[in-house]
Amino acid sequence: MSSPLVLRTVAELRRTVAGWRAAGERVALVPTMGALHPGHVSLAGIGRRTCTRIVVSIFVNPTQFAPNEDFSAYPRTFEADLAALEAERIDAVFAPGVPDMYPDGFCTTVSLAGPAAAGLEDRFRPTHFAGVATVVSKLLIRCLPDVAVFGEKDWQQLAVIRRAARDLDIPVDILGGPTIRESDGLAMSSRNVYLTPEERAAAPLLHRVMTRCAERIRAGEPASTAMAEGRAAIEAGGFALDYLETRDPDSLAPVADDASGPLRMLVAARIGRTRLIDNIAVRPVAQH
Ligand code: AMP
Fold it and tell me: Residue 93 C-alpha to ligand 1 middle, in angstroms?
């Protein structure tokens, strides 16, 4: 086992990637905010399928947090992250500082519509996706990987990034990795450390409710009926619900009850001071 290279500046990153490219290697980038868990690590495994070099970026991006959100409290566990990545044979960690990413005078952002304005996360975090798309565009342009891997856990984010990479002609394959869960169904998240023991015990309800609603929709019940009962069950379980919706998986547009075809269920809910998001496939492929 050897430690990953730790790269702090765009110049170091470009020099390292250029060396690999000159040797004919393929490079995958896995962008993260650190506080790594097995969900993050699984994305590196997806990059490994087609690439010989893996870069994991660790950057807690201030521009995707609203002033009332948890930027300063967000867990930062760099040494433990490095140890976890060493065990996974990651080649490099790109961990720039805020002034390197956003030098004085920085004033350019990516502006979004489409899946970024679907009325899901954007309704509750109106500045979030501009921050995400800007930082991800910068990371992709800095690294110019062959492949970049993102988690399905953040389904709307994945749709936004796919669209932005296509629209901005960034030459990279965007891959999605399945959501890694705890054994009781809770989606792994760096923010789960905020949960008190009682909240942690309640948290798997979100996945349970979604699973039950999806089964009922597949059995022929109208999505609107199943969703209404799902919303009530989540609120009865002690959550403040932001949304529970079924949408088209790509555009994230609403889908009529009688439509067939792919369907994704997405949820966001708060318990105590923690906001959890999750999603599952209702109908993963078009049905004829
Ligand atoms: P974050 O550090 O939370 O910004 O996440 C970095 C990447 O890991 C994003 O692409 C997330 O969607 C992905 N991710 C986070 N949690 C999971 C999970 N439980 N399973 C799979 N991917 C995840």
Answer: 16
Among 36, 41, 43, the mutation site with the greatest number of ligand 1 atoms within 8 A of its Cβ is 43
> Model pTM?
0.97
Cα dist from 89 to 48, 56, 263, whole Å: 10, 11, 36
Q: How far is the CA of 105 from the centre of ligand 1 (A)?
A: 30
Q: Name the residue at shortest CA distance from atom 10 of ligand 1.
A: 150
190-283: CATH superfamily: Pantoate-beta-alanine ligase, C-terminal domain (3.30.1300.10)
Atom of ligand 1 nearest to the CA of 190: 3
Render pLDDT for 66-99 as a digit per residue (tens, 0 to 9). 999 999 999 999 999 999 999 998 999 999 999 9
User: If you average pLDDT over every residue of the chain, what do you get?
Assistant: 96
Token reading at 106: 């920085």
Right CATH for 5-177 from 3.40.50.620, 3.40.30.10, 3.40.190.10, 3.40.50.720: 3.40.50.620
> In 3-state terms, the chain is what percent helix, strand and coil (to 5)?
40, 20, 40
Q: Which residues contact 79 (CB under 8 A, 6 or more apart)?
A: none
pLDDT tens-digit readout, 204-217: 999 999 999 999 99
Task: Please compute the mean of the pLDDT values over residues 218-239 and round it to a whole number.
Answer: 97
